[in-house]
Specification:
GO terms for molecular function: pyridoxal phosphate binding; transaminase activity. By secondary structure, the chain is an alpha/beta fold. The chain has helices spanning about 15-25, 30-35, 65, 75-85, 100-110, 125-145, 165-170, 175, 195, 205-220, 245-260, 280, 310-320, 335-350, 350-370, 405-415, 440-465; strands at about 40-45, 50, 55-60, 115-125, 150-155, 185-190, 225-230, 260-265, 290, 305-310, 375-380, 385-390, 420, 420-425, 425-430. Bound molecules: 4'-deoxy-4'-aminopyridoxal-5'-phosphate (PMP).
Protein backbone atom coordinates (compact mmCIF):
# COMPACT_ATOMS: atom_id res chain seq x y z
CA UNK A 1 0.00 0.00 0.00
CA UNK A 2 1.31 3.40 -0.89
CA UNK A 3 1.49 5.57 2.20
CA UNK A 4 2.64 8.62 0.31
CA UNK A 5 0.54 11.69 1.00
CA UNK A 6 -1.62 12.43 -2.02
CA UNK A 7 -0.22 15.96 -2.21
CA UNK A 8 3.17 14.67 -3.40
CA UNK A 9 3.65 13.84 -7.06
CA UNK A 10 4.39 10.23 -7.96
CA UNK A 11 7.93 9.89 -9.27
CA UNK A 12 10.31 7.09 -10.07
CA UNK A 13 13.30 6.43 -7.87
CA UNK A 14 15.56 7.77 -10.61
CA UNK A 15 13.62 11.04 -10.76
CA UNK A 16 13.76 11.48 -6.98
CA UNK A 17 17.48 10.77 -6.99
CA UNK A 18 18.13 13.27 -9.75
CA UNK A 19 16.11 16.00 -8.04
CA UNK A 20 17.75 15.25 -4.71
CA UNK A 21 21.22 15.41 -6.21
CA UNK A 22 20.33 18.63 -8.03
CA UNK A 23 19.00 20.56 -5.05
CA UNK A 24 19.48 19.10 -1.59
CA UNK A 25 22.51 19.77 0.57
CA UNK A 26 22.26 16.92 3.07
CA UNK A 27 23.50 17.12 6.68
CA UNK A 28 26.77 15.31 7.47
CA UNK A 29 27.28 14.33 3.85
CA UNK A 30 30.10 14.42 1.32
CA UNK A 31 28.22 16.01 -1.58
CA UNK A 32 30.36 14.64 -4.35
CA UNK A 33 30.16 11.12 -3.01
CA UNK A 34 26.39 11.37 -2.63
CA UNK A 35 25.95 12.70 -6.16
CA UNK A 36 28.01 9.79 -7.47
CA UNK A 37 26.12 7.11 -5.56
CA UNK A 38 22.61 8.60 -5.26
CA UNK A 39 20.52 8.55 -2.11
CA UNK A 40 18.25 5.78 -0.96
CA UNK A 41 14.76 7.22 -0.90
CA UNK A 42 12.74 6.18 2.16
CA UNK A 43 9.01 6.38 1.60
CA UNK A 44 7.30 4.75 4.56
CA UNK A 45 7.81 2.91 7.82
CA UNK A 46 6.07 0.68 10.33
CA UNK A 47 7.31 -0.80 13.60
CA UNK A 48 11.06 -1.28 13.24
CA UNK A 49 10.94 -1.35 9.42
CA UNK A 50 11.51 1.24 6.72
CA UNK A 51 10.59 0.81 3.07
CA UNK A 52 12.50 2.43 0.25
CA UNK A 53 11.07 3.68 -3.03
CA UNK A 54 11.82 0.31 -4.67
CA UNK A 55 9.64 -1.42 -2.08
CA UNK A 56 12.57 -2.99 -0.22
CA UNK A 57 12.04 -3.51 3.50
CA UNK A 58 14.89 -2.38 5.76
CA UNK A 59 15.30 -3.16 9.46
CA UNK A 60 16.13 0.13 11.19
CA UNK A 61 18.71 -0.83 13.81
CA UNK A 62 19.30 2.85 14.60
CA UNK A 63 15.71 4.03 15.22
CA UNK A 64 16.35 6.79 12.68
CA UNK A 65 18.97 8.86 14.46
CA UNK A 66 18.58 7.12 17.86
CA UNK A 67 15.16 8.66 18.23
CA UNK A 68 12.17 6.57 17.16
CA UNK A 69 11.90 4.89 20.56
CA UNK A 70 8.21 4.00 20.27
CA UNK A 71 8.68 2.64 16.74
CA UNK A 72 7.13 3.81 13.48
CA UNK A 73 3.48 3.81 12.48
CA UNK A 74 1.95 4.91 15.78
CA UNK A 75 -1.59 5.98 15.03
CA UNK A 76 -1.96 7.41 18.56
CA UNK A 77 0.70 10.02 17.78
CA UNK A 78 -0.95 10.98 14.52
CA UNK A 79 -4.27 11.38 16.33
CA UNK A 80 -2.69 13.43 19.12
CA UNK A 81 -1.21 15.78 16.54
CA UNK A 82 -4.47 16.05 14.61
CA UNK A 83 -6.49 16.78 17.76
CA UNK A 84 -4.07 19.46 18.89
CA UNK A 85 -3.77 21.00 15.43
CA UNK A 86 -7.52 21.23 15.22
CA UNK A 87 -7.82 22.94 18.61
CA UNK A 88 -4.70 25.12 18.55
CA UNK A 89 -2.00 24.36 15.96
CA UNK A 90 0.40 26.95 17.26
CA UNK A 91 0.89 29.49 19.92
CA UNK A 92 4.00 30.54 21.82
CA UNK A 93 5.20 30.81 25.37
CA UNK A 94 6.60 34.34 25.05
CA UNK A 95 5.34 37.37 26.95
CA UNK A 96 3.45 35.62 29.73
CA UNK A 97 1.35 33.23 27.67
CA UNK A 98 1.13 29.45 27.98
CA UNK A 99 -0.74 26.53 26.40
CA UNK A 100 -2.15 23.40 28.05
CA UNK A 101 0.08 20.90 26.15
CA UNK A 102 3.25 22.75 27.15
CA UNK A 103 2.07 23.00 30.76
CA UNK A 104 1.17 19.30 30.92
CA UNK A 105 4.39 18.19 29.27
CA UNK A 106 6.50 20.27 31.66
CA UNK A 107 4.65 18.71 34.59
CA UNK A 108 5.16 15.21 33.20
CA UNK A 109 8.88 15.73 32.57
CA UNK A 110 9.36 17.01 36.12
CA UNK A 111 7.63 13.87 37.38
CA UNK A 112 9.76 11.49 35.27
CA UNK A 113 13.21 13.07 35.69
CA UNK A 114 15.33 12.73 38.85
CA UNK A 115 14.28 14.73 41.93
CA UNK A 116 15.26 18.37 42.00
CA UNK A 117 14.82 19.08 38.28
CA UNK A 118 11.63 21.08 38.63
CA UNK A 119 11.68 23.49 35.68
CA UNK A 120 11.68 23.06 31.91
CA UNK A 121 12.79 25.27 29.03
CA UNK A 122 11.52 23.96 25.67
CA UNK A 123 13.46 24.10 22.40
CA UNK A 124 13.16 22.40 19.01
CA UNK A 125 16.32 20.34 18.85
CA UNK A 126 19.06 18.90 21.00
CA UNK A 127 21.48 21.48 19.60
CA UNK A 128 19.22 24.33 20.66
CA UNK A 129 18.75 22.75 24.08
CA UNK A 130 22.51 22.65 24.59
CA UNK A 131 22.91 26.18 23.24
CA UNK A 132 20.28 27.28 25.73
CA UNK A 133 22.27 25.60 28.49
CA UNK A 134 25.39 27.60 27.59
CA UNK A 135 23.53 30.88 27.87
CA UNK A 136 21.70 29.78 31.00
CA UNK A 137 24.82 28.57 32.79
CA UNK A 138 26.70 31.77 32.06
CA UNK A 139 23.69 33.83 33.13
CA UNK A 140 23.55 31.79 36.35
CA UNK A 141 27.18 32.54 37.22
CA UNK A 142 26.80 36.20 36.29
CA UNK A 143 23.82 36.43 38.65
CA UNK A 144 25.87 34.67 41.32
CA UNK A 145 28.47 37.45 41.00
CA UNK A 146 31.06 35.11 39.50
CA UNK A 147 30.97 36.17 35.84
CA UNK A 148 34.52 34.91 35.37
CA UNK A 149 33.14 31.37 35.60
CA UNK A 150 32.63 30.99 31.85
CA UNK A 151 34.51 27.87 30.87
CA UNK A 152 32.50 24.76 30.05
CA UNK A 153 34.43 21.51 30.01
CA UNK A 154 33.28 18.78 27.63
CA UNK A 155 34.93 15.63 26.33
CA UNK A 156 36.75 14.59 23.19
CA UNK A 157 34.28 12.95 20.85
CA UNK A 158 31.38 14.32 22.86
CA UNK A 159 28.49 15.35 20.62
CA UNK A 160 26.16 18.12 21.71
CA UNK A 161 24.83 19.35 18.39
CA UNK A 162 25.57 21.30 15.26
CA UNK A 163 24.94 24.94 16.05
CA UNK A 164 28.06 27.08 16.36
CA UNK A 165 28.09 26.97 20.15
CA UNK A 166 27.09 23.30 20.46
CA UNK A 167 29.88 22.39 18.04
CA UNK A 168 32.35 24.38 20.11
CA UNK A 169 31.16 22.61 23.26
CA UNK A 170 31.33 19.21 21.57
CA UNK A 171 34.55 17.37 21.03
CA UNK A 172 34.28 16.10 17.45
CA UNK A 173 37.66 16.97 15.96
CA UNK A 174 36.88 17.20 12.26
CA UNK A 175 33.64 19.05 12.91
CA UNK A 176 35.39 21.64 15.06
CA UNK A 177 37.94 22.32 12.34
CA UNK A 178 35.25 23.75 10.03
CA UNK A 179 33.68 27.17 10.32
CA UNK A 180 36.07 29.27 12.35
CA UNK A 181 35.88 27.19 15.51
CA UNK A 182 36.86 26.57 18.25
CA UNK A 183 35.39 29.35 20.36
CA UNK A 184 37.05 30.52 23.57
CA UNK A 185 36.01 29.16 26.96
CA UNK A 186 35.28 25.61 25.87
CA UNK A 187 37.77 23.00 27.04
CA UNK A 188 37.81 19.24 26.64
CA UNK A 189 39.12 16.21 28.46
CA UNK A 190 39.58 12.73 27.05
CA UNK A 191 36.51 10.52 27.01
CA UNK A 192 36.60 7.38 29.20
CA UNK A 193 37.54 5.08 26.34
CA UNK A 194 39.28 2.15 28.00
CA UNK A 195 40.20 0.33 24.81
CA UNK A 196 42.13 3.45 23.69
CA UNK A 197 43.51 4.87 26.90
CA UNK A 198 43.64 2.09 29.49
CA UNK A 199 43.37 -1.41 28.04
CA UNK A 200 45.69 -2.81 30.68
CA UNK A 201 43.94 -1.17 33.64
CA UNK A 202 41.03 -2.73 35.53
CA UNK A 203 37.73 -1.02 34.67
CA UNK A 204 37.59 0.41 38.20
CA UNK A 205 41.11 1.83 38.08
CA UNK A 206 40.49 3.22 34.64
CA UNK A 207 37.19 4.82 35.76
CA UNK A 208 38.98 6.65 38.56
CA UNK A 209 41.86 7.69 36.30
CA UNK A 210 39.53 8.96 33.55
CA UNK A 211 37.49 11.04 36.00
CA UNK A 212 40.79 12.38 37.33
CA UNK A 213 41.34 14.07 33.95
CA UNK A 214 38.53 16.43 34.93
CA UNK A 215 40.31 17.40 38.14
CA UNK A 216 43.52 18.01 36.17
CA UNK A 217 41.69 20.20 33.65
CA UNK A 218 40.00 22.22 36.41
CA UNK A 219 43.36 22.84 38.06
CA UNK A 220 44.93 23.85 34.75
CA UNK A 221 42.10 26.26 33.87
CA UNK A 222 41.68 27.56 37.42
CA UNK A 223 38.65 26.40 39.45
CA UNK A 224 37.31 29.96 39.65
CA UNK A 225 36.92 30.09 35.87
CA UNK A 226 35.01 26.85 35.38
CA UNK A 227 31.23 27.13 35.00
CA UNK A 228 30.16 23.58 34.16
CA UNK A 229 31.03 20.12 32.97
CA UNK A 230 28.89 18.45 30.28
CA UNK A 231 28.76 14.81 29.27
CA UNK A 232 26.47 12.24 27.73
CA UNK A 233 25.81 9.42 30.24
CA UNK A 234 26.89 7.05 27.45
CA UNK A 235 28.73 8.84 24.65
CA UNK A 236 26.72 8.09 21.52
CA UNK A 237 27.85 9.65 18.24
CA UNK A 238 31.41 9.71 19.55
CA UNK A 239 31.76 5.92 19.52
CA UNK A 240 29.39 4.43 22.03
CA UNK A 241 31.61 4.88 25.04
CA UNK A 242 30.09 3.23 28.12
CA UNK A 243 31.51 4.79 31.29
CA UNK A 244 33.62 2.46 33.42
CA UNK A 245 32.41 1.69 36.96
CA UNK A 246 32.89 4.58 39.36
CA UNK A 247 33.46 7.15 36.61
CA UNK A 248 30.31 9.19 37.05
CA UNK A 249 30.42 9.03 40.86
CA UNK A 250 33.91 10.50 40.75
CA UNK A 251 32.92 13.16 38.18
CA UNK A 252 30.00 14.06 40.43
CA UNK A 253 32.31 14.37 43.43
CA UNK A 254 34.81 16.55 41.58
CA UNK A 255 32.10 18.91 40.28
CA UNK A 256 30.53 19.21 43.74
CA UNK A 257 33.92 19.83 45.29
CA UNK A 258 34.52 22.83 43.05
CA UNK A 259 30.91 24.03 42.92
CA UNK A 260 30.83 23.34 39.18
CA UNK A 261 27.47 22.67 37.54
CA UNK A 262 27.01 19.16 36.15
CA UNK A 263 25.11 18.88 32.88
CA UNK A 264 23.87 15.55 31.54
CA UNK A 265 23.21 15.54 27.80
CA UNK A 266 20.42 12.95 27.71
CA UNK A 267 19.48 13.60 24.09
CA UNK A 268 20.23 9.98 23.18
CA UNK A 269 20.14 8.29 26.60
CA UNK A 270 16.74 9.67 27.63
CA UNK A 271 13.37 7.94 27.31
CA UNK A 272 14.37 4.38 27.99
CA UNK A 273 17.37 3.92 25.74
CA UNK A 274 19.61 2.64 28.57
CA UNK A 275 16.85 0.69 30.38
CA UNK A 276 15.79 3.45 32.76
CA UNK A 277 13.91 6.61 31.84
CA UNK A 278 17.19 8.51 31.82
CA UNK A 279 20.85 7.57 31.62
CA UNK A 280 21.35 9.63 34.76
CA UNK A 281 19.32 7.01 36.63
CA UNK A 282 21.24 4.12 35.06
CA UNK A 283 24.55 5.65 36.18
CA UNK A 284 23.32 7.36 39.34
CA UNK A 285 24.17 10.87 38.12
CA UNK A 286 22.48 13.80 39.88
CA UNK A 287 22.79 16.54 37.25
CA UNK A 288 22.03 20.21 37.83
CA UNK A 289 20.78 20.46 34.26
CA UNK A 290 19.67 17.84 31.74
CA UNK A 291 18.99 18.19 28.02
CA UNK A 292 16.37 16.03 26.30
CA UNK A 293 15.31 15.57 22.66
CA UNK A 294 14.94 12.62 20.24
CA UNK A 295 12.99 10.00 22.28
CA UNK A 296 10.93 12.79 23.86
CA UNK A 297 8.63 12.64 20.83
CA UNK A 298 10.12 9.48 19.30
CA UNK A 299 11.13 11.80 16.48
CA UNK A 300 7.55 12.29 15.26
CA UNK A 301 7.89 16.06 15.68
CA UNK A 302 10.91 18.20 16.53
CA UNK A 303 10.96 19.03 20.22
CA UNK A 304 13.62 19.19 22.92
CA UNK A 305 13.87 20.42 26.47
CA UNK A 306 16.26 21.66 29.11
CA UNK A 307 15.48 20.33 32.59
CA UNK A 308 16.69 22.85 35.12
CA UNK A 309 17.51 21.94 38.71
CA UNK A 310 16.51 24.03 41.71
CA UNK A 311 19.97 25.47 42.26
CA UNK A 312 19.96 27.17 38.86
CA UNK A 313 16.24 27.92 38.56
CA UNK A 314 16.12 29.59 41.97
CA UNK A 315 18.83 32.04 40.92
CA UNK A 316 17.28 32.65 37.49
CA UNK A 317 13.87 33.27 39.01
CA UNK A 318 14.85 35.21 42.15
CA UNK A 319 17.68 37.33 40.80
CA UNK A 320 17.37 37.04 37.05
CA UNK A 321 15.11 39.64 35.56
CA UNK A 322 14.40 38.75 31.94
CA UNK A 323 16.12 35.71 30.41
CA UNK A 324 16.52 37.17 26.94
CA UNK A 325 16.40 33.92 25.01
CA UNK A 326 13.91 31.64 23.27
CA UNK A 327 12.56 30.29 20.02
CA UNK A 328 9.36 30.90 18.07
CA UNK A 329 8.54 27.22 18.51
CA UNK A 330 9.67 26.78 22.13
CA UNK A 331 6.90 24.63 23.61
CA UNK A 332 5.10 24.22 20.28
CA UNK A 333 1.69 22.90 21.36
CA UNK A 334 1.42 20.21 18.67
CA UNK A 335 4.91 18.91 19.39
CA UNK A 336 4.13 18.94 23.12
CA UNK A 337 0.87 17.03 22.58
CA UNK A 338 2.72 14.40 20.55
CA UNK A 339 5.48 14.15 23.17
CA UNK A 340 2.89 13.64 25.91
CA UNK A 341 1.20 10.86 23.97
CA UNK A 342 4.58 9.31 23.18
CA UNK A 343 5.50 9.23 26.86
CA UNK A 344 2.17 7.71 27.62
CA UNK A 345 2.86 4.94 25.06
CA UNK A 346 6.23 4.21 26.67
CA UNK A 347 4.47 4.00 30.06
CA UNK A 348 1.41 2.00 28.93
CA UNK A 349 3.48 -0.59 27.14
CA UNK A 350 6.15 -0.81 29.84
CA UNK A 351 8.82 -0.26 27.18
CA UNK A 352 11.45 1.14 29.53
CA UNK A 353 11.27 -1.84 31.89
CA UNK A 354 11.30 -4.15 28.90
CA UNK A 355 14.59 -2.64 27.72
CA UNK A 356 16.16 -3.10 31.16
CA UNK A 357 14.85 -6.54 32.00
CA UNK A 358 14.38 -8.34 28.74
CA UNK A 359 15.29 -7.04 25.32
CA UNK A 360 18.39 -5.01 26.29
CA UNK A 361 20.11 -7.98 27.99
CA UNK A 362 19.04 -10.17 25.06
CA UNK A 363 20.74 -7.83 22.55
CA UNK A 364 23.93 -7.77 24.64
CA UNK A 365 23.90 -11.57 24.98
CA UNK A 366 23.59 -12.01 21.21
CA UNK A 367 26.34 -9.46 20.54
CA UNK A 368 28.62 -11.22 23.04
CA UNK A 369 28.50 -14.12 20.59
CA UNK A 370 30.51 -11.98 18.14
CA UNK A 371 33.35 -11.42 20.60
CA UNK A 372 35.50 -14.21 19.17
CA UNK A 373 35.32 -12.90 15.62
CA UNK A 374 38.83 -11.91 14.52
CA UNK A 375 37.73 -8.33 13.77
CA UNK A 376 35.95 -7.71 17.07
CA UNK A 377 37.97 -5.89 19.71
CA UNK A 378 35.19 -5.02 22.11
CA UNK A 379 31.45 -5.43 22.61
CA UNK A 380 29.89 -2.79 24.84
CA UNK A 381 26.53 -1.29 25.59
CA UNK A 382 23.64 -0.85 27.97
CA UNK A 383 19.96 -1.29 27.32
CA UNK A 384 19.27 -0.93 23.60
CA UNK A 385 22.43 1.01 22.86
CA UNK A 386 25.35 -1.10 21.78
CA UNK A 387 28.69 -0.91 20.00
CA UNK A 388 30.97 -3.52 18.48
CA UNK A 389 34.44 -2.08 17.91
CA UNK A 390 36.53 -3.54 15.11
CA UNK A 391 40.28 -3.59 15.64
CA UNK A 392 43.29 -4.72 13.68
CA UNK A 393 44.93 -6.83 16.35
CA UNK A 394 43.21 -7.84 19.56
CA UNK A 395 46.30 -8.72 21.56
CA UNK A 396 48.28 -5.67 20.58
CA UNK A 397 45.23 -3.35 20.84
CA UNK A 398 46.19 -1.90 17.49
CA UNK A 399 43.61 -0.04 15.45
CA UNK A 400 42.91 0.23 11.75
CA UNK A 401 44.40 3.09 9.80
CA UNK A 402 43.00 5.05 8.16
CA UNK A 403 40.35 4.98 10.83
CA UNK A 404 36.78 4.38 9.67
CA UNK A 405 37.43 2.59 6.40
CA UNK A 406 36.79 -0.89 7.79
CA UNK A 407 33.76 0.21 9.80
CA UNK A 408 32.26 1.92 6.78
CA UNK A 409 32.73 -1.21 4.67
CA UNK A 410 31.03 -3.32 7.34
CA UNK A 411 28.16 -0.83 7.54
CA UNK A 412 27.73 -0.95 3.77
CA UNK A 413 27.50 -4.75 3.92
CA UNK A 414 24.77 -4.45 6.57
CA UNK A 415 22.92 -1.86 4.54
CA UNK A 416 23.03 -3.82 1.33
CA UNK A 417 21.47 -6.65 3.33
CA UNK A 418 18.71 -4.28 4.42
CA UNK A 419 19.72 -3.65 8.01
CA UNK A 420 20.68 -0.17 9.20
CA UNK A 421 23.65 -0.38 11.55
CA UNK A 422 25.79 2.73 11.89
CA UNK A 423 29.57 2.93 11.81
CA UNK A 424 31.19 5.47 14.13
CA UNK A 425 34.74 5.24 12.83
CA UNK A 426 35.35 1.51 13.28
CA UNK A 427 32.66 0.89 15.87
CA UNK A 428 29.43 -0.69 14.66
CA UNK A 429 26.59 0.99 16.54
CA UNK A 430 23.03 -0.16 17.18
CA UNK A 431 20.14 1.65 18.85
CA UNK A 432 16.89 0.13 17.55
CA UNK A 433 13.34 1.15 18.48
CA UNK A 434 12.46 -0.06 21.98
CA UNK A 435 9.71 -2.29 20.54
CA UNK A 436 12.16 -4.52 18.64
CA UNK A 437 11.42 -8.23 19.08
CA UNK A 438 13.87 -11.05 19.81
CA UNK A 439 13.49 -12.37 16.25
CA UNK A 440 14.29 -8.95 14.82
CA UNK A 441 17.35 -8.72 17.06
CA UNK A 442 18.47 -12.14 15.79
CA UNK A 443 18.14 -10.87 12.23
CA UNK A 444 20.09 -7.71 13.02
CA UNK A 445 22.92 -9.54 14.79
CA UNK A 446 23.09 -12.33 12.16
CA UNK A 447 23.33 -9.70 9.44
CA UNK A 448 26.12 -7.99 11.36
CA UNK A 449 27.92 -11.34 11.76
CA UNK A 450 27.78 -11.98 8.01
CA UNK A 451 28.88 -8.42 7.33
CA UNK A 452 31.88 -8.96 9.61
CA UNK A 453 32.85 -12.08 7.64
CA UNK A 454 32.57 -10.20 4.36
CA UNK A 455 34.54 -7.28 5.72
CA UNK A 456 37.22 -9.69 6.90
CA UNK A 457 37.43 -11.09 3.37
CA UNK A 458 37.64 -7.55 1.96
CA UNK A 459 40.50 -6.55 4.29
CA UNK A 460 43.49 -7.16 2.01
CA UNK A 461 41.95 -5.04 -0.75
CA UNK A 462 40.59 -2.45 1.68
CA UNK A 463 43.89 -1.84 3.39
CA UNK A 464 45.95 -1.75 0.21
CA UNK A 465 43.76 0.70 -1.68
N1 LIG B 1 23.29 15.80 22.01
C1 LIG B 1 23.46 14.51 21.71
C2 LIG B 1 24.02 13.59 22.74
C3 LIG B 1 23.12 14.03 20.44
O1 LIG B 1 23.33 12.76 20.12
C4 LIG B 1 22.56 14.93 19.50
C5 LIG B 1 22.13 14.47 18.12
N2 LIG B 1 22.66 13.31 17.64
C6 LIG B 1 22.42 16.26 19.87
C7 LIG B 1 22.77 16.66 21.13
C8 LIG B 1 21.90 17.28 18.90
O2 LIG B 1 20.54 17.10 18.71
P1 LIG B 1 19.83 17.70 17.39
O3 LIG B 1 20.37 16.95 16.23
O4 LIG B 1 18.38 17.46 17.69
O5 LIG B 1 20.14 19.14 17.34
Amino acid sequence: ASALPAALPTRSTAEWRALDAAHALHPFTDYKALAAEGSRIITRADGVYLWDSEGTRILDGMAGLWCVNAGYGRRELVDAAARQMTALPYYNLFFKTATPPAIELARKLVELTPAGLNHVFFTNSGSEANDTVIRMVRQYWALEDQPERRVIIGRHNGYHGSTVAATAMGGMGAMRRQGGLPLPDFEHIREPNRLRYGPDQSPEDFGRAAAGWLEEAIQAIGPGRVAAFIGEPIQGAGGLIVPPPGYWAEIQRICANHGILLIADEVICGFGRTGRWFGSQTFDIRPDIMTLAKGLSSGYLPIAAVMVGDRVSRTLIDKGGEFIHGFTYSGHPTACAVALENISILEREGLVDRVREDIGPFLMERLEGLRDHPLVGEVRGKGLMAGVELIRDKDQHSFFAPVGRVGTRCRDHCFSNNVVIRAVEDTMVMAPPLIITRDQIETMVDTLARALDRTQRDLPRLMSS
